[in-house]
């Protein structure tokens, strides 16, 4: 059941709201910021080089990406005005946007990229505001397949970089540098100790650069001439508000990337909430919404700066699972140090000097892992036939389009080029397949009523008719009715208690629930029934209260008894709280 009582956080040294000593915070923050700066610089360098942008733009986009990533890391940690996840979430330039960003820069330069990213930010704000409506869309099948398609769109760029060496270089230079970098990355990731694996990017890229130096294709001139402190000149002329054909051709790809970033932020926020506490607790989806909102703010700033949008890195999760540090205070240190590093041009110049074969080999391994992680997400709840078919078909449609293996002559027109990106084509395929399943599947039965105990007869009649329509057994029907009764009573009693605390007198307390409505949606499935109770409430989390019941030997109130009965009759209970709605999902098994 979702309401299990297993302990979490037993290996935590510092939980989310705890304050580590300042020296320890600085040391952990400095090390993490240095490690995070490497992928930020690498991703932005790959995009600028693949799009043949100037050195001035490269310096500017790296600076902007590091500053914005640092700011958003701080916002995610401290949670300003409801913006931020309130967890140790490290932000940086999005690897998912590499493919579409290269196309935008090649078609219209930083101005077009900025416009597309700003529009993406507006979509992210909309996703954050209506996150509850996306709970059926952001499924493991969708998010995992989109992650795999991101890898498909980026890895070809890595392959192209493997041979990008000076014309007078030795014939063995490119393959040797590639092999050394690949072996270093793979060896460290597979066999390195935990503390060594944390430095994999630095050590592997360093090994590749050393090999490149032996072949004479490593130029450290820019590092020697770079200043220790400074701010690069702004290399973007603002936004392209012409909204020409290139904008409309590239917009679908950016919207799918925005969706991928939102999915990544949701999953990371949920996981960090689980990792940040010492005791089991239900996920607060209001903070998840805040995390997606912070992503939107970072994307908006990135668009205005003409650089890549930001998204969460794995550094926060790695700190929590690796060394048991999930304190939000560490996030503030990481963000501040990342901003300081942005003002040190020598750091940027050092990474920019890395030869293309080294970066290509590194990105192949990293996005190969991203592909595998996407497939793991798809099948984490079991490789069902429907999920396997949807994921497989959508992935190969996207891959076929990306590699121009599916009717390439028909994708030569400006309109058709909107689909000539693997992420766009594959993402559209999986969304259409899910829509087809929703339209052709069993109809959802629904009823609406006031949120109060007097509505119980209306709910009971609805459930009796639902069970009879799908020929449920008497035992299963009774269990369905009992679980639904306790769910309604628990919600209404909790709402009344909350109204009593907030109200100024008995009359306000009595009318706390009078104006609130409850919508119940029932769905019949092969082995169980799913009930969804949706209400615009201000209550506490019932899932948390059911966890606390496990530590009390006997019910201490009528509400505790109701929760205990609900846990007995239901197979699982989850309570998702958003800013504008609460959703209680109850699953009841058939015999």
List low-confidence stretches. 1-10, 500-513, 541-561
Number of strands: 7
Spatial order of the strands in the main sheet?
3-4-5-7-6
What's the helix count? Answer: 21
Strand content: 5-15%
N-to-C SSE string, H for helix and E for strand: HHEHHHHHHHHEHHHHHHEHHHEEHHEE
Largest sheet: 5 strands, antiparallel
Helix content: 55-70%
Q: What separation lies between the terminal Cα atoms?
A: 17 Å
Structural class category: alpha+beta
Shape field: globular
Describe the structure using short key phrases.
591 residues, two-stranded antiparallel ribbon
Question: What would you say this structure looks like, in words?
Answer:
The chain has helices at 22-50, 55-78, 98-129, 140-161, 173-191, 194-197, 200-214, 221-225, 245-276, 285-305, 315-322, 328-342, 345-352, 356-378, 385-402, 422-440, 456-469, 474-502, 506-510, 542-549, 558-569; strands at residues 91-93, 310-312, 445-450, 517-524, 528-535, 572-577, 582-589. By secondary structure, the protein is an alpha+beta fold. The chain is globular. The two termini are 17 Å apart.
